[in-house]
């Protein structure tokens, strides 16, 4: 069978149109209604496009006879310039971590022009201090090592966390340059941060229940609390375990207050006044220590807010974070 030429096919099409009572120019009239009825939008492009990259392995830990991949999720706005970074650590009582949570808050920061990187870390009771802090610092080094690939600004890194993630943020923020926490890959890159944000995180692990009543305070003396397991592990084999107060030296080593000095980066602190899980006292003593050392620190107490409740999902709160970041990173 011979193939028809393009010229032949066009001629046939025109002939068919004439036979059936139409003309080529008539095709244009078929969209008259759509052209007349269409509502034209004049859109101003003000919102950033945000890319989501999930489950990037930043570290492969081999410990206790198994290999543990640690992953991160990325929300990266598309910008022509390098993007400032917020490393986010989700809380979970030191024993659990769901990096899918806090999506609203993370997206708000990404839409404001920040790469928001949610990182996993090792958890109790399998792992003890300082594993989680080593991991977060490892994640920061990984991001700096791959900054060009993800269009990140290596000079503008913040760390942010809530609850036990807020504790991690405070530890990372107060230990810039402390070599004891530098382990793993990319050691030729810095894990220093230029800003820290702590939402209702514990600081002095021995006083988490301070001022919340005798029963709550007494409950934190148990060796089965997660802060006790963070410091001492669990009683198993040759490890005696113990309460968080049973070894003051180890508890002090796991306390961000221990590392505060005038070289620390700016801190933004938030805590609910009605928090009965982590006492507001924890954030107040960190703020006091930072101010005593002339560190740029800002404290917000959210009236009536409990621990990680709906107050922290409101625009009034997240806009404070965005404005604080803008003031330091987008001057």
Describe what this molecule looks like in 3D.
The protein has one domain (50-329): Rossmann fold (3-Layer(aba) Sandwich). Strand 5 (152-162), helix 6 (164-174) and strand 6 (195-199) form a beta-alpha-beta unit. The mean pLDDT is 92. The protein is globular and about 90 Å long. The chain is built from eleven helices and eight strands. The protein has helices spanning 6-19, 32-37, 103-111, 131-145, 147-150, 164-174, 214-219, 226-232, 248-253, 281-292, 315-329; strands spanning 50-63, 66-77, 83-89, 115-119, 152-162, 195-199, 267-272, 297-302. An eight-stranded mixed sheet has the order 1-2-4-3-5-6-7-8, with helices on both faces. It starts with 5 loop residues before the first helix and ends with a helix. Helix content is 32%, strand content 20%. The protein has 331 residues and is of the alpha/beta class.
At a glance:
With 331 residues, this protein is α/β, with parallel strands linked by helices. The chain has eleven helices and eight strands. The chain has one domain: Rossmann fold (3-Layer(aba) Sandwich).
Salient structural properties:
single chain; alpha/beta; Rossmann fold; 11 helices
Distance between the termini: 73 Å
- Helix fraction, binned, reads 25-40%
Q: Count of helical segments?
A: 11
Query: Architecture, according to CATH?
Result: 3-Layer(aba) Sandwich
- CATH H-tier superfamily: Alpha/Beta hydrolase fold, catalytic domain
Largest sheet: 8 strands, mixed
**Class computed from helices, strands and strand pairing:** alpha/beta
H/E topology pattern = HHEEEHEHHEHEHHHEHEH
- Mass-distribution shape: globular
CATH class: Alpha Beta
What is the rounded Rg? 28 Å
Question: What value does the average pLDDT take?
Answer: 92
Low-confidence stretches at least 5 residues in length (pLDDT < 50)? none
Structurally, how many domains make up the residues? 1
- By CATH, the topology is Rossmann fold
Beta-strand segment tally: 8
